[in-house]
Amino acid sequence: MSNRYSDLWKSQKWKKLRQNLFRLQKRVYKAVRDGDLKKARSLQKLILKSRSAQLLAVRQVTQLNKGKKTAGVDGLSSLSYRQRVKLVETLNDCASDWRHNRLREIPIPKKNGKVRMLKIPTIADRAWQCLIKYALEPAHEATFSAHSYGFRTGRCAQDVQKRLQLHLKSDAKGITKRIIELDIKKCFDRISHSSIMDKVIAPAKIKVGIFRCLKAGINPEFPEQGTPQGGVVSPLLANIALNGIEEIHPSLRYADDMVIILKPNDNAEKILNKIKVFLAERGMEISEEKTKLTKTTDGFDFLGWNFRVQKNGKFRSIPSVENHRNIRKKIKAVVNSSNFGAEVKAQKLAPIVRGWRNYHKNCDMSSSRDSLWFINNTAHRKFRKEKKVSRYRADELCKKGFPKVGYKQNQHVNVRGTKSPYDGDLVYWSNRNSRLYSDATSEALKKQKQSCGFCGLKFLEDESVHLHHIDGNHDNWKPKNLLAVHQSCHQQIHWSTPKGEDI
Length: 503
Fold this sequence. Notes:
The chain has 503 residues and is α+β, with helices and mostly antiparallel strands. It folds into four domains: 1-142, no CATH class; 157-191 and 226-318, Alpha-Beta Plaits (2-Layer Sandwich), CATH 3.30.70; 320-402; 426-494, no CATH class. The protein is 46% helix and 11% strand. Strands 4-5-3-6 form a four-stranded antiparallel beta sheet, covered by helices on one side. The longest helix has 20 residues, at 14-33. It is globular and about 65 Å long. Residues 497-503 have low confidence and may be disordered.
């Protein structure tokens, strides 16, 4: 019996399903762009009933999302193939009248010693939210500001970094400017439900489902406020509520983090008052303690970088002190672990270091601190202490564990205006996506003309690019042995049985 469900799930034509969903999403985007909201809502109903969207939603939350193994109140942390198929049927029957379960609360300690409560829906609720997101996202991508970047498909933190460079470079007289580092007090906990519901572009049945979703995670002290952190659709709902704040004054927003760029004659107090009014209408307020007015020459931290205009007028961005402290902590946790040998440690270090260096590849990484020289040296000493690890072998392991990634300052190419992947310009988006990767991945993408080596679809930013080693040897990085594929396609190549499934 289990084999039947396994074969049924694996035999789905995922490429065709993605094409079907994307076709509907493009139509929703175009309808909203054209001002035809009635047509957009009709198309959103089609997405809700679409078998393609339902299957993809279940796959997304059970196979692809980072938090896919996090259990909700029902205790389920993964689904067997049979349970996945049953969940698709449940979505098909009940998606238009979905009732949310309670949320599992997980306390997360914050830097200031306080606790942030993460509220986790069940896998079934996450699948429904993902399905709703498929319908909502293209509609609102057509209305979002060009200066909003967080939790938006096709946009990334590096866009903010580049935009700041354009605002603060010497030609733009960045040395004379100031920055307001804006902090919204408990943003996700204080967003007014009415401000979300009034702005959501969706048919009535979807709105009812969203309202129930919001009410499932309310704080009893604030029953009309808050969107649960941990939900699939929560970041999108927050973006919907905050959309437009960027237009008050030239600024850049990444989710609830925001910097406002002031010229010498701009009145910071007036601008902040306008923002306070905007936020008050949505149930939120500015954190007076954390909101700061900073000279660009003094530098400021944003999204893991420290930005500063030097005395000679040149713009410089480097990893922030806190970001550097965090990566060192992660590396030390692996290097100092007594559970692994040197070989395993090197394997575990490689993705951590590569990911960090890729994130900062548009910074000035020339300093010994940012090159991770000291922690690399520490790892080398630790490796040498193990038996049968010679100096030369330790050198090889350090090269493997600390892979090099080239950096070029301010070379990122920004997303063009208000463009969205849902506009259907696949050539633009696949070319842009290939620029976000470096070295081996970038070369593989160019060789494959930005198409997946498994399914043949163009790479958009809705799914990460994986490198598949054709011969199975992960130490063989020759170009002929590497194939750039979607994350889901990579899983299909290496199909494995979920926990609890009988083969």
